[in-house]
Amino acid sequence: MSNSDAEETKTSIHQKCRFDTDDADVTFQSSDGIQFKLHRKYLEAYTGAFPGDSARELRSDRPTDVTHLTESAEILEILFQFVYPRRHPSLEGLAFKDLAPLAEAVEKYEVYSAMTICQIRLKPFIPEYALEILVHGIKHDYSELVNEAALHLSRNHRPLDQFLIKLPNNAMFPWIRYSEAWGSIFEKALQLTGVHHNEESSATDIPCDRCQTLIVTYIVKLERVSSLSTLSARLDAGLPAESAKVIGNCRRGCPQAKTATKCMERVIKLCKDGITSMRPFTEFLKETTG
Prior knowledge:
This protein has helices spanning 3-14, 40-46, 53-56, 73-79, 96-108, 112-122, 126-140, 143-153, 160-164, 169-193, 209-224, 228-237, 241-248, 259-276, 281-289, and strands at 26-29, 35-38, 66-68. By secondary structure, the chain is mostly helical.
């Protein structure tokens, strides 16, 4: 979206409603000093958390007159449009820097009419802001957002300790198990090559050292891929052409002519099946909270 389009979107969202009517009976002030005069009856009808008990707990210079909120005027101006019985903004084109705090405010004040549209608008931002959306989804129990964001982060190679500190406490251990589940896919793939001896592999299943090295290198590189879509594409592509040619024509070291080729096919199938059958992250969360 161009800058002009973004400005037009922002203007269209903000110009629809003025909150300064004479018959308003409750006043809120934003963190940057802008006041909004609203009608208590609509707040009570369309929200669950203000101007009731939660609002009274907020800072207020004159509690009976002005209630101070922690959100900026830009966010509140959008938020308050959802508490009146009129057509609500679609939020289409709203930048993530505005959508994210809006979505948090919607949950904080329980503005029911805005909850669904915020989650719909957050989804397209998952590829770029997966961690922020994962945290939001966990905090407010949006399973679809959580699972889609977790998939995007499943190939995240940031040091685990640096990643975990950004998660809610109840998600730390589930994420460790989730990461281990992903790692086990590639560990099992390595076992198929015979690099880790196991009882399930017979001598005729294990390729020669040269072919084994090529397949193991392929698996190691797969595990390092930082994007799930790229990982799937690499699996579809198989071994690089030169390596595929070597294992396809191996006649000397391998027990049988197609040993390495069949091993490679099993590796790809195992990885694809592992990705397809990976349990959603919400199931790992439930194991902790259940």
